[in-house]
Amino acid sequence: MARTPAPGTRERILTTASRLFYAHGVRAIGMNRIIAEAGTGKNLLYQHFTTKDDLVTDYLTRVRERRSDAIRRALDAADDDPRARLVALVAEIGDLVTRTGSRGCAFRNYLVEFPDDGTAGDAPAAVARGHLADVRAIVARLVGELGADDPDRLTGELCLITDGLFMQAAHRDAADVRHGADAAVALTRRLVGA
């Protein structure tokens, strides 16, 4: 007879896997390590997550929800002026990447680990690409509200800034990341005329 999972088992597994995947990468973390660190049995893990892809998808979905909420809060806290909102978006990312333990962007990290993923049915890559597309759409919408002469170019430049923030967080020391975050906000202000 199958054991009934204790309340919170699924959450404990997902929380453990999320921490490990972000800190070490998805490829580096096997299911046995998640089982050991979550303090659960193999059967219980597989009751909640049939495959590692299911677990990775839920991890990225959780990150996507949290990132979307953080972006929404940053935009809501800014003036209605699209310039202020673009600066707020970059500043929010700057604050995120300067936190202790930041390894950059969970979505970009996943896509770097699995560059060939993205075929139909690859749920983790779909979540990652979906979030990145959503953020680019927010930037493009705000740039469109500016009435910029070349909105595609400005959108690309601003997305390059955010890409750079996440990239340097993955491999630079804390002082460099803080300096880069400050520079990114200043550059954004110049680009949007804020």
From TrEMBL:
Domain of life of the organism encoding this protein: Bacteria
| Record-linked Gene3D superfamilies | Tetracycline Repressor, domain 2 (1.10.357.10)
Q: Which UniProt keywords apply?
A: DNA-binding
InterPro entries assigned to the protein according to its UniProt record, in alphabetical order: Homeodomain-like_sf (IPR009057), HTH-type_TetR-like_transc_reg (IPR050109), HTH_TetR (IPR001647), Tet_transcr_reg_TetR-rel_C_sf (IPR036271)
Q: Does the keyword Glycoprotein apply?
A: no
Sequence ranges assigned to domain HTH tetR-type in this UniProt record? 7-67
Q: Which residues bind DNA?
A: 30-49
PANTHER family (UniProt xref): HTH-TYPE TRANSCRIPTIONAL REGULATOR RUTR, HTH-TYPE TRANSCRIPTIONAL REPRESSOR BDCR
Name-wise, this protein is TetR/AcrR family transcriptional regulator
